[in-house]
Design a protein that fits this description.
- This protein has 290 residues and is an alpha+beta fold.
- The protein has two domains: 130 residues, Roll (Pnp Oxidase, Chain A), CATH 2.30.110; 127 residues, no CATH class.
- The protein is built from nine helices and ten strands.
- Strands 3-2-6-7-8-5-4 form a seven-stranded antiparallel sheet, covered by helices on one side. A three-stranded antiparallel sheet has the order 1-9-10, with no helix packed on it.
- Helix 4 runs antiparallel to helix 5, helix 4 packs across helix 6 and helix 5 crosses helix 6.
- The radius of gyration is 23 Å and the shape is elongated.
- The N and C termini lie far apart (49 Å).
- The model has no long low-confidence stretch (mean pLDDT 93).
């Protein structure tokens, strides 16, 4: 086992605090993943991102875990984050061949003693993602996570939502990324080729109504608005009903707040030029639409 020196002393806690903390720890929601190396597999709820550059993960493994020790000794592991519907994998069923919500191949770089656990640090060598919603481990149980969008609960609710946005009376807190996607998709169906210009005017007017300044550093963003308008036009091109198009678009893109970073270098999309004028993608993203 590759061991690094501990960061500091780990004095034993007050027994009563330790007993209470074991229960209190279950109040912290976490994802659920299957850790594997060779034929060894184990369920963990401690997988965490700790660095973007270089890409690194950490996972805490109990010191008395035989499987954990075997995985640590192997020097590398694969982690598969479980999505809703894969709860049976926690009961020992074989891993499916279908794409994982998130799957990473990692090389263990260091292991630290941390109380009754080992904190394993690993560098990500390969990864893949797919659509879906995760399982959340909370209060020692598995729970399906799925965002709720009340404004899409019915065609009437969505129509009322869009009307409030267009009138500038929609509370600012409700103008979320998913709301952007829903309105953009509905405009693509309603207005076709003029959808981008209409959504642009709508965003500028709404910002003014709620006190968001449209400047070179805030408010309306030309590149992102055009980017999403083109992507949504492609995604809902076969729809004729604005509400159905909005539901489909939000299902696919409602939580994709950072999708543009697959098409743009970090500094490009944050530039003043990109906010004020259209800047084509400088990276090869997963959708060919520009």
């Amino acid at each position: 086992m590759l061991m690094a020196s501990p960061a500091g002393n780990n004095p034993r806690a007050d027994p009563e605090i330790a007993r209470l903390f074991r229960r209190a720890a279950s109040f912290i929601p976490t994802g659920v993943a299957i850790l594997s190396s060779g034929d060894i597999t184990m369920i963990v709820s401690s997988l965490q991102c700790i660095s973007f550059d270089p890409p690194m993960l950490s996972v805490a493994l109990a010191k008395d875990s035989i499987k954990g020790e075997a995985i640590s000794d192997s020097g590398r592991f694969r982690a598969r984050l479980l999505r809703h519907g894969e709860e049976k994998l926690c009961r020992g069923e074989r891993l499916p061949s279908t794409p994982a919500l998130l799957e990473v191949q990692c090389l263990i770089s260091a292991i630290y003693a941390a109380g009754d656990h080992h904190l394993v640090l690993a560098t990500v060598e390969q990864l893949s993602t797919s659509q879906g919603y995760p399982i959340v481990y909370w209060r020692r149980g598995l729970h399906a996570f799925q965002p709720r969008y009340p404004f899409l609960s019915s065609p009437a609710a969505f129509q009322k939502f869009v009307a409030a946005w267009e009138a500038g009376t929609l509370p600012k807190s409700e103008w979320t990324h998913a709301a952007h996607i829903a309105v953009g998709a509905s405009y693509a169906v309603r207005f076709g080729r003029t959808a981008f210009e209409r959504i642009k005017v709508g965003i500028v007017n709404y910002n003014q109504a709620v006190g968001t300044e449209n400047t070179s550093n805030s408010g309306y963003h030309e590149t992102l608005t055009r980017f999403w308008s083109m992507l949504l036009a492609q995604a809902v091109g076969a729809f004729s009903d604005p509400w159905e198009a909005a539901c489909k678009a939000v299902e696919e893109f409602g939580e994709e707040r950072d999708l543009h970073y697959l098409f743009y270098s970090f500094d490009v999309v944050r530039s003043v030029g990109a906010r004020q004028t259209w800047v084509p993608p400088d990276l090869e993203g997963p959708y060919a639409f520009c």
